[in-house]
Amino acid sequence: MTPPMVSPPAPVLSPRRQMLRRALRHRGLIFSSIVLGLIVLIAVFAPLLAPYDPYKQSLIARMKPPVYLGGTWKYPLGTDALGRDMLSRLIYGARVSLMIGLVSAGLSAVIGTVMGISAGYFGGRVDRFVQYLINVRLAMPVILVALATVSLLGGSMFIIMIVMGLLLWDRFAVVLRSATMQVRAMEYIEAAEMLGARQSRILWKEILPNVSSHLIVIFTLEMAHAIILEAGLSFLGLGVQPPTPSWGLMISEGKEMLLFDSWLIMIPGIALFLLVFSINMFGDGIRDVTAPEGRN
Amino acid sequence: MAALVALTVSIISFALIYMAGDPAVALAGENATPDVVAQIRAQYGYDRPLPVQYLDWLAHALRGDFGTSPYFRLPVSELIADRLEVTMILGVLGISFALLVGVPMGVLAAMRPNSLIDRAALFIAVVGQAIPSFWFGLILIVLFAVNLGWLPASGADSWKGFVLPTIVLGYYATPAIMRLTRAGMIEVLGSDYIRTARAKGVKPRKILFKHALRNAVIPVVSLAAVQMGFMLGGSIVTESVFALHGAGYLAWQSISRNDLPTMQALILIFSLFYIFFTFLADVLNAWLDPRLRK
Predict the structure, then answer these.
(1) Is residue B266 part of a domain?
(2) pLDDT tens digits for B108-122?
(3) How far is A240 from chain B (nearest CA, A)?
(4) In chain A, what are the domain boundaries?
(5) ipTM of this predicted complex?
(6) Does residue B264 belong to any structural domain of this protein?
(7) Pairwise CA distance, residues A71 & A98, whole Å
């Protein structure tokens, strides 16, 4: 009897290598990583990159048009109604948007993750209570509550980040709750429980790593959400206060000149769009790479 | 559940104005003398214990009495009733716009998954979600009101004043409706009864509209109801950009003028609308889907 023919096994890549491979082939992920990387670098090195002080006003250099509308290279993106250099304000504005996005989404992530994982893992009363909190949160319009609280407490960046962080946790809680429920039904959780692992160990070492890909995707969504919301609050005059160079505030200030000089709102608007667009694209890419079976 | 949520929301709307400390000081303004503050405190009843104030406020609110607006010097309920019409019209127009654009786009995308149309629709959705609505509104104003002069930049004197706000309010809900329609259509078109209908020789058009769309659109209807609830929040930004004097604009006015009674009332009313629309979504879902009917 001859032994059955055994073909040599195909090289199996570890899940991590497979993920990396998918990431390097994902055009959207690569494009958005480059754009985001650039914006982060601009924000970090703002003092070195900005040609002028973003707060410095100049009476003689007001409303200079950008280069592409016949301006000079002295002010590549022109100046605003107070004679401040638009390019410098734009560069410093990246700091405001990124900071607000990261801190607000970070705070929401902590709140929503704790809620979602405990609801999904413990179920029962805990789950009902968390669902009740989610429903209350969803019933209150974010922008209205954010506007009201910021106006009552004062519009400093710190307060805006805290208020938004306390408002944007709902999606974290909803998604992590159902993700945790799925993971909880897995055999390795049962095995860990049988082995007598402590609850905190199961939550930290077994559940959290297995829902983390969802966490990252929601984080990008909520970061984009927070950035748009801050811009909206500042636009309505109840967000970051002048003279801080926030992109939303720049659009609001440019609104007065809308009829004649629409580039004043175009420039910060495009910056805002580019940042939010690449954050969303990055999140989509991460989702595709970490959960290829869930595409479409 | 809905009742409990509504009750909690009422407590939050009530408690919100205490966040910054004394509401009487906030109402009186920065330069008020202690006498004026004390007078306001007594006038609005802020000197009573909190639970008493809350129950009194709620009891009046249930009868439609939200007190008097210190800024407009009018009863709050009258003020809101006046402004709600514009917001309701805008909401209905906005959701209609989203459905009229989102559903056909979703159907087209689902007919040929991964085709050029499908990819283009998804790309538009991703781009649309990244455009801040207030900025989008300003660009539309520059384009259609300033440069082309076709439509007014603000106000609601004629139907023309509603065109741009409808687009700004509606486009935000469009991607979600499109994606859900697309997913539903792809699922239904792959099902057995569609194959049977095709095998029987039913005309493709009839299959698409009578068999597939009818089933795929059920979840879209309830999504639309939920989106309608979200749109009330969106109306604040949209109405401010276009200076439409609706409830959203009133909310912004009351917040920037420290008009606490109006602010409280609007937060409560907007939240109750949202609760109503999500409830409506559940009812619609059960009514449209015979499998959920018992």
Answers:
(1) no
(2) 888 887 888 888 888
(3) 14
(4) 96-294
(5) 0.85
(6) no
(7) 29
Distance CA A59, CA B21 (A): 41
Interface test with B, best of A32, A127, A130, A144 (most B CBs within 10 A): A144
Q: Which two tokens stand for residue B3?
A: 């009742």
Label residue A124 left, alpha or beta by phi (over 0 means left) and psi (-120 to 50 means alpha): left
Name the burial class of residue A187, with classes exposed (0-12), middle (13-18) and buried (19+) by CB atoms within 10 angstroms of its CB: exposed
What is the pTM (predicted TM-score) of this model?
0.88
Q: Do both B96 and B173 map to the same domain?
A: yes
> Which among A148, A237, A251 has CB closest to B135?
A251
B131–A149 C-beta distance less than 8 A: no
Same domain, residue pair B21 and B149: no
Separation in Å, CA B212 to CA B100, B153, B290, B293: 17, 41, 15, 20
Confirm whether B285 is domain-assigned. no
Alpha helices (H) in B112-246, listed in sequence order: 116-129, 133-140, 160-171, 174-189, 192-200, 204-206, 214-216, 218-241
The reply to whether B59 and B91 lie within a common domain is no
Spatial CA neighbour of A169 closest among A209, A223, A211: A223
Q: What is the extent of the structural domain holding B52?
A: 2-63
Q: CA-CA distance, A204 to B76, in Å (whole number)?
A: 50
DSSP letter, residue A7? P
Q: Is B240 on the interface with A (CB under 8 A)?
A: yes
Q: B137 and B207 share a domain?
A: yes
Same-domain status, B167 and B88: yes
Q: Of B187, B186, B138, B199, which is closest to residue B165 (Cα–Cα)?
A: B138
Tokens representing A71? 């301006």
Specify the CATH number for the domain of residue B103. Answer: 1.10.3720.10
- Which amino acid would we find at residue B180? L
* CATH classification (class only), A96-294: mainly alpha
Q: Considering Cα of B155, then B261, then B272, then B256, what sign does the dihedral take?
A: positive
Contact yes or no for B126 and A280 at CB 8 A: yes
Count the helix, strand and coil residues of chain A and give each as a percent rounded to the nearest 5: 70, 0, 25
Mark whether B84 and B188 lie in a shared domain.
yes
CA–CA gap between residue B234 and residue A239 (Å, rounded): 17
Which residues of chain B neighbour A144 with C-beta distances below 8 Å?
Answer: 233, 236, 251, 266-267, 270
Sign of the CA dihedral with A250 first, then A255, A259, and A265 last: positive
B35 plus B123 within the same structural domain:
no
| Number of domains, chain B | 2
> pLDDT tens track of chain A, all 296 residues?
556 666 666 666 777 788 788 888 888 889 999 999 999 999 898 888 878 778 777 777 777 777 777 777 777 777 777 778 888 888 898 999 999 999 999 999 999 999 999 999 998 899 999 999 999 998 888 888 898 888 888 778 899 999 999 999 999 999 999 989 888 888 888 888 888 888 888 888 888 888 888 899 899 999 999 999 998 898 888 888 888 888 888 888 888 777 677 778 888 889 999 999 999 989 888 888 887 554 43
- Could you tell me if B22 and B159 lie in one domain? no
User: Using the beta-carbon criterion (under 8 Å), do A273 and B26 form an inter-chain contact?
Assistant: no
Residue in chain B nearest A237 by alpha carbon: B256
